[in-house]
Specification:
Chain lengths: 327, 335
C-alpha cells in the first residue's frame, strides 16, 4: 500500500502579505477595465504557479492548480455551455461561500474543452503530478434551476455527456488521475439511480486515466456500500461530518484507491496527530487499496485563510511521515 | 402576541412596520471607516460620525412612518465579526473568500467565549433617546456566531453554540435592564443544518431568552424553511422574521397543514434588487400574508437588512411599505 499526500481541490488565491494581493488587485483592475483579459490571464497563470509551488513546499505528493481561475465549482463548468445562463448567487451547501446558479433554458451543448487548458498549464509548470478536478454531473444538475421543462433525469444525463467529454479531454491531455466532485448526492440518497447512471456514463470515457469520485459536506457512511460498486478507480470522503465512517470503511473494506479527508478543510484548528493516527489504524489494516491519499476534507480555497491552509497541509504531511514510519 | 406587547406597555398599530436592522452607511461614514482602518482617523472622530449617521436614520425612520425602529448599525461591519471583536475568546482570521473577488475576515474561537461588558447597549440607549417609538435591541444569535466562526477551542458545534448562548444572554439582560422591550436575535444561519435545529438550537435559544421580559423576534433568512418547519415554532420567541418576497414557497399549503402559531414579520420587499417595488405590489404581498395569518399576527418589513442598497432605494422601498400597509390597515377598518 502506498500512502500519498494530496490536495483536494482549491487553494486560497490571496493571503495577508502584500505580494499575495496580486490576484485580488488584478481582478478589480480587470473589472474596472484597467487591464485586458489577456493580462489578467497572465496574472492567473502566475498565481497558479505560485500556489502549486506552495503546495509542493508544504510537502504534497499530488497537487492541483488551486482552481485559481474558478469563479465557483458550478458556474465554472456551465458558463461556457450552450442552453444555459447564469443567475444570482446562492449559498454553496452549508458553507459561507456563494456560487452563481445556472439556469437551464434549452438542451445543453458542450462547445469545447473547459478544464483542459488549465490542466495543461499546471502540468507544464509543476514538478509534481497534477490532479485535475471536475464537478460531477449530478451535482451540476442538482444545483441548477431547470426552466426548460423535462425531467431531472434527462438533465443529469446531459450533464453526464458534458463531463464525460471533459474527462476524455483531460485524459487525452495526459491526466493520470482525475477527481470528480459529487457533494450533492450525500443529502439526496434517493437520487442514487440517476446519479449512478451519470457516473457510469462519465467513467466510460476515462480511457487510460483513473477516475476518483469525491464527496464532502455530508455523512457518506449510509451510502458507502453503494459507492463501492460504482465503476470508478478511487473514492474520496470527508470525515468531518461522519463519526461512524472509519468503522464502516473498516467493516466493508475497499479494493479501490481511497482519498481520506481527515484534515478539516473548513476549520483553522490544526489536526492532532494521535486523532488522525487513530482513524488510520482503524481503516488501513482493513482495506486492500493500492494507494491511499491523505488529503483535506474539501478544497481549501474558499474556506481557509492562506497561511492556515499552508500550515494545515504541512501538518498533514508531518503526520503522514509518521504513518509511513509505522508501516 | 398582542397581549404580550400591551403588557410590555407597547401600543403598536395593527400590522406594525419595522426593518430588519441595517441601513446603508452615508458616504462620509464609509470614508471615515476607511481612514480609521488605516489609522488616518481616531476612534473619537469616527464615533462622532457614527452618531451623526444614526441620528439621521432614526429621524428618517420616524419621518417615513415606521413603528418599531432600529439604530441602523452604523457602527458595525460584518454582523458576526462585530460581536466577535467585542467578546472574549475570539481572534479574527486572515481573508477568506466569500464569492467572486469578495473576501471577509472570519472570527476564530480560540478560548472560552466571554462577555466583557455591554456591546450594543450604548447604541440602543443613544437611538432610543432620539425617539418616542420603540427601538429594537439587536444581537447576532449564538447559532450564527458559531456557524460563521472557526472553532479551535470547543470540542463540538453544540458546545460552541451553547457557550455563545450563555454569553449572549448577558447582552440580552443588559439590553433589557437598559429598557429594551423588543429584542431581535439575528440567526441567518439557522437553516444551514436542519438536523441541528432539533438537536441544540432550541436549547441555545432558551438560554439566550431565559427570564427576560421582552418581546423576542428571531430573524432568519429563507434558506431551508421547508426542512425546519414546523419544528421551528418550538423556539422560545414571539415573532419569526422571514424573507418572503424572495421565496417561491407555497406557504398557504404548508400553513394549512401546520398552522403558524406565532407572530411573523413578513418580508415584503427584496433587499437584493435595485428596483423599488411599487405600493400595489407590496400591498398584494401583504394581502397574501393575510391569507395565511390573522392581522394580529402580522408585522411588515423588508426581507433583510438594507445596507447593500443605496439611500434612495432604501427610502423608496420603505415608503412603499408604509404606503401599502396604510392602505391595508384601512381595508381592515383600522388607521
Amino acid at each position: 500500500m502506498e500512502i500519498l499526500t494530496a490536495s483536494t481541490g482549491s487553494y486560497p488565491r490571496i493571503g495577508d502579505s502584500p505580494e499575495q494581493q496580486r490576484h485580488r488587485q488584478a481582478y478589480a483592475q480587470r473589472e474596472r477595465g484597467e487591464i485586458s483579459d489577456d493580462e489578467f490571464e497572465r496574472i492567473q497563470d502566475e498565481v497558479t504557479r505560485e500556489v502549486i509551488e506552495e503546495q509542493i513546499r508544504a510537502g504534497l505528493d499530488l497537487v492541483t492548480d488551486g482552481q485559481v481561475r474558478w469563479y465557483d465549482p458550478i458556474s465554472h463548468f456551465t458558463r461556457k455551455l450552450g442552453g444555459c445562463e447564469l443567475d444570482g448567487l446562492l449559498r454553496f451547501f452549508d458553507t459561507n461561500f456563494y456560487f452563481r446558479q445556472p439556469v437551464i433554458k434549452e438542451e445543453l451543448e458542450w462547445r469545447g474543452p473547459i478544464a483542459k487548458r488549465e490542466f495543461t498549464f499546471a502540468k507544464g509548470v509543476s514538478p509534481k503530478p497534477v490532479k485535475p478536478v471536475v464537478t460531477g454531473p449530478y451535482t451540476l444538475a442538482k444545483l441548477s434551476i431547470n426552466r426548460r421543462g423535462g425531467s431531472f433525469q434527462s438533465l443529469v444525463d446531459e450533464f453526464a455527456e458534458v463531463i464525460a467529454q471533459e474527462v476524455k479531454e483531460l485524459a487525452g491531455a495526459g491526466a493520470e488521475l482525475i477527481q470528480m466532485d459529487e457533494p450533492a448526492i450525500l443529502k439526496n440518497p434517493n437520487d442514487f439511480p440517476a446519479f449512478q447512471g451519470a457516473i457510469e456514463k462519465v467513467a466510460a470515457g476515462k480511457g487510460d486515466a483513473r477516475l476518483a469520485l469525491y464527496t464532502y459536506f455530508g455523512d457518506a457512511a449510509p451510502l458507502y456500500g453503494k459507492l463501492l460498486k460504482l465503476p470508478v478507480d478511487a473514492l474520496g470522503f470527508d470525515f468531518t461530518y461522519s463519526p461512524s465512517l472509519p468503522v464502516v470503511v473498516a467493516k466493508l473494506g475497499c479494493e479501490k484507491d481511497l482519498g481520506l479527508g481527515l484534515i478539516d478543510g473548513r476549520n483553522t484548528r490544526l489536526e492532532i496527530e494521535r486523532e488522525v493516527l487513530a482513524v488510520l489504524k482503524t481503516i488501513l489494516p482493513n482495506v486492500g487499496s493500492e494507494r491511499v491519499f491523505i488529503n483535506p476534507s474539501c478544497g481549501l480555497g474558499e474556506y481557509l485563510p492562506r497561511e492556515i491552509a499552508f500550515k494545515k497541509l504541512q501538518n498533514m504531511v508531518a503526520i503522514v511521515e509518521k504513518v509511513r514510519g509505522l508501516t | 402576541m398582542r397581549e404580550k406587547l400591551e403588557k410590555l406597555g407597547l401600543n403598536l398599530p395593527l400590522l406594525p412596520i419595522t426593518t430588519v436592522g441595517s441601513f446603508p452607511k452615508p458616504p462620509y461614514l464609509i470614508d471615515a471607516r476607511r481612514k480609521f482602518a488605516t489609522k488616518l482617523l481616531g476612534a473619537e472622530e469616527l464615533k462622532k460620525l457614527e452618531d451623526q449617521a444614526t441620528r439621521e436614520w432614526v429621524a428618517l425612520q420616524e419621518k417615513i412612518g415606521l413603528d418599531v425602529l432600529v439604530d441602523g448599525e452604523m457602527y458595525r461591519g460584518d454582523m458576526a465579526t462585530y460581536f466577535a471583536q467585542n467578546l472574549g475568546g475570539f481572534k479574527i482570521s486572515g481573508p477568506v473568500r466569500s464569492y467572486g473577488n469578495r473576501y471577509y475576515r472570519k472570527p476564530i474561537i480560540t478560548g472560552e467565549v466571554k462577555w466583557r461588558g455591554p456591546i450594543t447597549v450604548d447604541w440602543w440607549k443613544f437611538a432610543q433617546k432620539l425617539t418616542k417609538r420603540p427601538v429594537k435591541g439587536m444581537i447576532t444569535g449564538p447559532y450564527t456566531m458559531m456557524d460563521w466562526s472557526f472553532n479551535e477551542y470547543y470540542p463540538s458545534r453544540r458546545d460552541a453554540c451553547l457557550d455563545l448562548a450563555k454569553t449572549l444572554h448577558e447582552e440580552v439582560v443588559a439590553l433589557s435592564n437598559a429598557g429594551a422591550k423588543i429584542i431581535q436575535i439575528d440567526e441567518p444561519a439557522l437553516s444551514v443544518r436542519p438536523e441541528e435545529l432539533s438537536g441544540f438550537v432550541g436549547e441555545a435559544m432558551r438560554m439566550v431568552t431565559r427570564g427576560i421580559n421582552a418581546y423576542f423576534i428571531i430573524h432568519c433568512c429563507y434558506g431551508a424553511f421547508e426542512f425546519i418547519y414546523p419544528q421551528m415554532l418550538d423556539l422560545p420567541v414571539d415573532n419569526f422574521d422571514l424573507e418572503m418576497s424572495n421565496s417561491e414557497l407555497d406557504l398557504v399549503e404548508l400553513f394549512h397543514k401546520y398552522p403558524f402559531t406565532k407572530d411573523m414579520s413578513f418580508g415584503v420587499v427584496d433587499v437584493h434588487s435595485h428596483i423599488v417595488e411599487d405600493v400595489g405590489l407590496v400591498k398584494k404581498r401583504i394581502q397574501q400574508a393575510l391569507e395565511i395569518l390573522e392581522p394580529e399576527q402580522l408585522w411588515i418589513d423588508p426581507d433583510c437588512g438594507l445596507k447593500t442598497r443605496t439611500r434612495e432605494e432604501t427610502i423608496g422601498k420603505l415608503q412603499a411599505i408604509v404606503g401599502a400597509t396604510k392602505e391595508v390597515r384601512k381595508l381592515l377598518g383600522e388607521g
